Amino acid sequence: MVSSVLQKVSSLVGPSHVSTDPDVLAGRSVDHTGRYRGRASALVRPGSAGEVAEVLRLCRDAGTHVTIQGGRTSLVAGTVPEHDDILLSTERLCAIGEVDTIERRVEAGAGATLAAVQRAAAAAGLVFGVDLAARDTATVGGMASTNAGGLRTVRYGNMGNQVIGLDVALPDGSVVRRHSRVRADNTGYDLPALFVGAEGTLGVITALDLRLHSNPAHRVTAVCGFDDLGALVDAGRLFRDLDGIAALELIDGRACALADEHLGVAPAVRGDWLLLVELASDHDQSERLADALEGVRASGEPAVGVDLAAQQRLWRIRESIAEVVGLFGPPLKFDVSLPLSVIAAFARDAAALIQRHAADAIAVLFGHIGEGNLHLNVLRCNDEQERDLYAAMMDLIADSGGNVSSEHGVGSRKRRYLGMSRDDADIAAMRTLKTAFDPTGYLNAAVLFD
């Protein structure tokens, strides 16, 4: 059955854009961390929305499962196939249109990388509102599918706040094109919002209209050290409400020590916990930042960067964390959203839980403190230790009033825990939508629902 489908698909997209090479498929069937693996029968790379739609129709009619892949930076095994799937890659859908500087928007293919969109915006004197450490690999289609957040969420919001319109290939082989040139368009259902965050379960995003923002003329960055996480959270509340806030990042002192030891990236200040704060505006924010720093209970003098070179040095420790968490093999990742009031207690309880289940493991906590969006990484944790630790940690997150997913999505790794954050009626409503769009359940079947 699969071979007959592939013959038709090959005729459609071209033989050079279909691969059944075992080595290629093996590389494409593992998640970003290297921790989770699946299996696939073929890789298909359509070159247009029409080709995507036709591939979907052919696979649906043949009863063949399809897993969508963009930059494959999912941290919850969201692009790992489970049913000997056909992998549908959006990598060829990478065109970026001319930036509309008047309306501050740009159209980009789903396969365009975040870095490419950022460069296009910068060339036009504008800025794109989402930034991630994986900017060179992550695609805007995948980011919309998971409603990604990142380093600038405290100022601009998540990916959904940047999506003005989109093209989506539906599971039945049709294409929805929702675009509008006007800023206020309250006509019918908000379809873009439906597909943003759906993790590819309702359709394949093929192109997006993205909102751009003015580029602030002045930035000032500071890093403060704290001995007490509660004091850092209090400072985060203060900075979060400042006009001009552009970034607010929690950095674990253990990550700083590892970056210093293994990467030669020394932190600008010392502390068990670090807080990076950045203000940006059309006028100098240095005095406002200095006044705010006076009100925090830091463990020492902060490091402040006014010029670009100094700011980049302060950001370097935050940017190095992605490399740090891979120093000891594939990390075990927990992407959580917590009320600010429980973060200090959660960090303490999580460390104790990790010690109990994996005594030699290293816990590294970082994230976007303004939203309580944290990334807990467990280093040196083997597969056997993971089995018990994962369930126990998810229980702790739920007991702390947290959400099982903040910006990475549910993927396949967290689908059994969906009920911790959504009640039965909510999940039933989501399943109704899934069935309406994809009655046979062939599209991204491993994702979201257990």
UniProtKB/TrEMBL annotation:
Cofactors (names): FAD
Pfam family name, one: FAD-oxidase_C
PROSITE patterns per record: FAD_PCMH
Domain FAD-binding PCMH-type: 36-215
Single GO MF descriptor: oxidoreductase activity
GO-annotated biological processes: respiratory electron transport chain
UniProtKB keywords: FAD, Flavoprotein, Oxidoreductase
Cited SUPFAM superfamilies: FAD-binding/transporter-associated domain-like, FAD-linked oxidases, C-terminal domain
InterPro entries assigned to the protein according to its UniProt record, in alphabetical order: FAD-bd_oxidored_4_C (IPR004113), FAD-bd_PCMH (IPR016166), FAD-bd_PCMH-like_sf (IPR036318), FAD-bd_PCMH_sub1 (IPR016167), FAD-bd_PCMH_sub2 (IPR016169), FAD-linked_Oxase-like_C (IPR016164), FAD-oxidored/transferase_4 (IPR051264), Oxid_FAD_bind_N (IPR006094)
Highest taxon listed in the record's lineage: Bacteria
Record family assignment: Belongs to the FAD-binding oxidoreductase/transferase type 4 family.
Protein name: Oxidoreductase
Organism this protein belongs to: Mycobacterium cookii
